[in-house]
Amino acid sequence: MEMNNALMFEQTGLSLPALRGLQGGRILYLSLPPNSVMNTFFPIDLEPAQEKSQRALDPRHAREIAEYIKENPAAYALGAVTYALDVEGSFAEAAPGSGIGLLRLPLNAKLRSIDGQHRREGVRLAIDELPSLAGESTAVLMYVEPDLARRRQMFSDMNNTARRVSKAVNISFDSRDPFARVVNELVESHSLLQDRVERTSIRVAPSSGKVFTLGAVHDAVKRLFVGPAGRVKDPHKYAVADIEARSIEFFDLLSEARPELREPPTAEAFQRNILYSSTTLRVVAGAVWNLCYDAGGPRISPATLAPALASIGFSPNESMWLDAGFVSPGRSTPNARSQELAAATAVLTEVLMKKVASAATN
């Protein structure tokens, strides 16, 4: 009787239209099951620690993916999720040699997550609130690999060969985030930024003639709304018109107060002036928020700050930066840790406030 039951489980199971191929010596299947099928038959994170083939599931990350799907139900895009099979299953080709056919996995087959478990869980969470998503599909890759050590090596290989897309490229391509949209328009239209923003790399090459990275401009614009230590949790609650207005005010201020930014910098200028640093740009934006936009602040007009900002020394040897720990002695670039950023923003805010007050009384 036990043998008959085992035979029954082997002869029944899950059937999926699939493509079959070979990669790295392993049989590989690609299928597009409906999300409802994926939810039912493809596990998330059920393996005990000693048998896991990848990192532990982070519920917060999965929830972020679910929120992204729910916010963009007509235009979301997710990569494939990847599993390892302990058995090859049976594959009936539609035509000999085509690699296209019907894959049948026995009910006792084990599917172990290799990559994409957060996307998999994000889809499940999104379906709970948008049931119509159950009828859509997610690509599923299935490698035939029963060995734990080799599965773990697959996970390591996939992550070691992947290269993170730079922040600048993500901002350039993002048409949903209102901050990204404004920044992309700003670097094309504002006289201070035209042809002076590095739009693909994470840093500016001193010989490039550029002044800031796209990521630095993006960060600075956000600082104008949430302050030096804030975080934009929901960018869509900010109106594009408001973002445009503050951004233009800020870069108009920089253009008026700091004429050196209107010219392509030399490599020597990068060594002599920390204002060319993306980190310093965030500090200036944070101080402007403190003085101009913070509801609890003095609410000074950005244009009024121009004379005060013009008189600030941005040499790495300036005592205000050294005393705040923003620049270490003998260094020409600022420290980007949060405590140094906070200290530098606070001291710049104080100095600018004093200069504005002094000018008002004279």
Descriptive overview:
InterPro entries: DGQHR-contain_dom, DNA_S_mod_DndB. This is DNA sulfur modification protein DndB. It comes from Lysobacter korlensis. The protein has two domains: 2-161, no CATH class; 167-361, no CATH class. The strands form two sheets. It has a seven-stranded mixed sheet with strand order 4-5-1-2-7-3-6. A two-stranded parallel sheet has the order 8-9. Helix content is 45%, strand content 13%. It has helices at 2-11, 35-41, 59-71, 117-129, 148-161, 167-173, 178-189, 214-226, 240-257, 267-272, 278-293, 306-310, 319-323, 338-361, and strands spanning 13-23, 26-31, 81-85, 90-93, 100-106, 111-115, 140-144, 197-198, 212-213. A hairpin with a 2-residue loop joins strand 1 and strand 2 (26-31). It is elongated, with a radius of gyration of 28 Å. With 362 residues, it is of the alpha+beta class. The mean pLDDT is 90. It has 14 helices and nine strands. Helix 3 crosses helix 4 (117-129), helix 8 runs parallel beside helix 11 (278-293) and helix 11 (278-293) packs across helix 14. The longest helix has 24 residues, at 338-361. The chain starts with a helix and ends with a helix.
List keywords for this structure.
alpha+beta; about 350 residues; seven-stranded mixed sheet; two-stranded parallel sheet; about 45% helix
Outline: elongated
Helical proportion?
Answer: 40-55%
The structural class is: alpha+beta
**What is the CA-atom radius of gyration, in angstroms?**
28 Å
Query: What is the average per-residue confidence, as pLDDT, rounded to a whole number?
Result: 90
Strand content: 5-15%
Q: How many strands in all?
A: 9
Main-sheet strand order equals: 4-5-1-2-7-3-6
Termini Cα gap: 101 Å
What is the total number of structural domains?
2
Largest sheet data:
7 strands, mixed
The run of helices and strands is HEEHHEEEEHEHHHEEHHHHHHH
Low-confidence stretches: none
Number of helices: 14
Protein name: DNA sulfur modification protein DndB
Organism: Lysobacter korlensis
InterPro entries: DGQHR-contain_dom, DNA_S_mod_DndB
